[in-house]
Design goal:
Layout: H1 3-20, E1 24-27, E2 31-34, E3 42-43, H2 53-73
Antiparallel strand pairs: 1-2, 2-3
C-alpha cells in the first residue's frame, strides 16, 4: 500500500477515534469538531498551528514513518528512509 494511502487510512482512524469519544467530526478544507456540550462547532485550526489539517496529517505521517523505522530495525533487515531529515529536524510530536 502506498504511503499516501496508508497515511489517509490513519487519518480516517484518527477521525473515527474522535467520533468514538463523542465528537461530530467534519473534514473539508478544515477539520471541525462539535460535541453535545458545545453550541457550535470549532475548527481545530483555532486551537493553534499544531491543529490545522496539514499539521495533524503531518504528525500522523511522521508517526507512521517512525513506526515503520522501528518495525524494520527490530528485525534483521535495514531500510532506507525517503526523508532521513525526519529524525534530525523534528520539532514536535503529539
Amino acid at each position: 500500500m502506498p504511503q499516501s494511502e496508508l497515511n489517509q487510512k490513519f487519518f480516517e482512524e484518527f477521525c473515527q477515534n474522535l467520533r468514538d469519544i463523542g465528537y461530530r467530526v467534519n473534514v473539508g478544507k478544515h477539520i471541525s469538531l462539535k460535541d453535545d456540550t458545545m453550541q457550535k462547532a470549532i475548527r481545530t485550526k483555532q486551537l493553534g498551528e499544531r491543529y490545522t489539517s496539514e499539521a495533524i496529517e503531518k504528525r500522523i505521517a511522521e508517526r507512521q514513518l517512525a513506526f515503520n523505522y522501528v518495525k524494520a530495525t527490530n528485525h534483521t533487515e535495514t531500510i532506507e528512509l525517503e526523508d532521513s531529515s525526519y529524525f534530525l529536524d523534528r520539532k514536535s510530536v503529539v
